[in-house]
Inverse folding.
């Protein structure tokens, strides 16, 4: 006999687990319980606060939703206009001391002449080859070459993507790409070069909104607060130490045993396999690859400088800094840093020298958040990373050597990016069905390991759809058809329309 019996047990209160819980709560059918080893909800979409009062997300988190149901749940959790700030994406790539508007491949008109020539040459070659190619690109590198040609590949795509993924582009597959990378238009590019013009805003996330308070993590704490408290267990009493897949019993860190019929697990699938103690699954999951993410935060005294302005996030393909992306986090909300009246001592001068006085002084303050990737194929000097990042900020003219740093932050997230490796689908197409045979839905950014459906909106819906699959036999579109959900507005489910109002396709029995 177990201590607790539920129809559906959910492991993890990140976006995926919360999606499952919201849906089960709405359906009000099977009994359920959601657990998380952390003492707050949010998972990788959480926010830390430094002792000085600077907020940092787990790297740049921007919501771009493909789903009405996701919007409904966020809106319900943070309903007031003053809960949010709306922003225009202002995004650049740093290259040879220039700020090239994003996306780089559409704005080669901004590059030095010799680079423009290389890029146009490559674009023409790629366009000519595309006319005769009758196979799909076999890896990400081939995809890049076909889309952009050698010039843009060497100047931007290869170095930048290696910095992001910590894996050479030749070791990644191409099927995950869908809408994510802007394909350049050769004619428009040549026109812009001749006329010295910039391409307009591209892509899915050219406007975005950000929570006024508590960072991205505030969203998920608010969503968790809409659930019945007695069904949410966090911390030690929510930590799953062991799962007996045959008996369908999870044992928690406080000794509690939970018997379930179906399990929605959002912990990384390799960790799940180990927790199940299943050697076959453990061996299989070794074929999955991931990279770690270091998040570095720097809080600076002073007015936000003119050269930074209202920039949101910035990309860094060159090797003059360890980070691939910087977010001006203080631009997202005035509450992401202490108020100007708060007195803070200077910790160090940006050039590494000691401050002349230890006296605490007033602000104003602004902040930068940086992301650095790491993997077995891209080692990082972890001990000196903060120092190297500050030097990188000086090298890229983001900060001045004489700037006063009042707060620093550095945290490593061991599993940051699920790599779309060449081997990935071969593993997932065996691993996930084997788990399903045991009544286990492994879903989420690392639960189902598909980066192309690994953002907050996707993750949330992976949870919602798993719940619908358990209760109604509905097909899980996000898991199985990423291109389909990414290419349309998904409006079938609504929070106010009842759980079975939608005509969802169901699995054949
Ligand atoms: C660097 C970075 C940048 C990102 N940028 C964006 C962005 O711009 N936009 C966007 O929409 N998304 C972004 N994301 C993705 C977003 O963070 C994920 O979509 C989301 O957090 C995944 O949710 P999840 O619930 O699947 O997994 P997680 O958030 O990882 O949650 C899993 C949960 O399971 C819990 N858990 C694990 N093991 C156990 C156990 N044994 N017992 C109990 N609980 C356990 C963990 O504590 C965790 O809370 C980014 C992610 C990263 C890392």
């Amino acid at each position: 006999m177990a201590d607790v019996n539920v129809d559906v047990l959910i492991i993890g209160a990140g976006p995926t687990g919360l999606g499952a819980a919201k849906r089960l709560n709405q359906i009000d059918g099977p009994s359920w319980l959601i657990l998380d080893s952390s003492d707050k909800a949010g998972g990788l979409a959480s926010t830390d606060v430094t002792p000085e009062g600077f907020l940092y997300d787990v790297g740049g988190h921007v919501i771009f939703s493909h789903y009405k149901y996701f919007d409904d749940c966020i809106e319900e959790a943070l309903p007031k206009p003053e809960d949010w700030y709306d922003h225009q994406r202002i995004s650049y790539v740093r290259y040879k001391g220039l700020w090239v508007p994003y996306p780089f491949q559409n704005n080669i008109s901004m590059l030095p002449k010799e680079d423009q020539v290389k890029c146009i040459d490559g674009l023409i070659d790629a366009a000519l080859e595309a006319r005769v190619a009758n196979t799909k690109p076999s890896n990400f590198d081939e995809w890049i070459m076909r889309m952009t040609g050698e010039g843009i590949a060497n100047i931007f795509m290869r170095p930048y993507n290696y910095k992001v993924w910590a894996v050479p582009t030749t070791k990644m597959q191409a099927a995950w790409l869908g809408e994510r990378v802007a394909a350049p238009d050769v004619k428009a590019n040549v026109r812009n070069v001749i006329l010295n013009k910039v391409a307009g805003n591209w892509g899915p996330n050219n406007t975005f909104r950000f929570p006024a308070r508590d960072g991205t993590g505030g969203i998920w704490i608010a969503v968790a607060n809409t659930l019945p408290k007695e069904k949410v267990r966090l911390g030690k009493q929510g930590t799953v130490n062991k799962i007996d897949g045959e008996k369908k019993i999870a044992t928690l860190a406080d000794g509690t045993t939970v018997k379930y019929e179906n399990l929605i697990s959002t912990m990384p699938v390799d960790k799940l396999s180990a927790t199940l103690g299943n050697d076959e699954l453990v061996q299989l999951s070794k074929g999955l690859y991931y990279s770690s993410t270091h998040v570095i935060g720097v809080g600076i005294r002073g007015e936000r400088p003119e050269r930074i302005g209202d920039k949101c996030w910035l990309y860094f393909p060159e090797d003059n800094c360890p980070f691939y992306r910087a977010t001006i986090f203080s631009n997202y909300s005035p509450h992401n840093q202490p108020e100007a009246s708060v007195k803070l001592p200077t910790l160090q001068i940006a050039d590494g020298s000691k401050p002349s006085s230890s006296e605490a002084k007033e602000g104003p303050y602004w902040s930068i958040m940086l992301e650095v990737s790491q993997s077995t194929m891209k080692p990082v000097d972890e001990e000196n990373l903060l120092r190297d990042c500050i030097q990188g900020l000086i090298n890229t003219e983001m900060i001045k050597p004489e700037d006063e740093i009042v707060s620093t932050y550095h945290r490593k997230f061991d599993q940051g990016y699920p790599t779309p490796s060449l081997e990935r689908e071969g593993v997932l197409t065996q691993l996930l069905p084997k788990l399903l045979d045991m009544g286990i839905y492994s879903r989420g950014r690392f639960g189902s390991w598909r980066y192309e459906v690994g953002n907050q909106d996707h993750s949330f819906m992976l949870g919602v759809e798993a719940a619908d699959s358990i209760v109604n036999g509905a097909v899980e579109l996000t898991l199985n058809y990423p291109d389909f959900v990414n290419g349309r507005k998904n409006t079938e489910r609504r929070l106010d329309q009842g759980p079975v109002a939608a005509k969802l396709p169901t699995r054949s029995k």
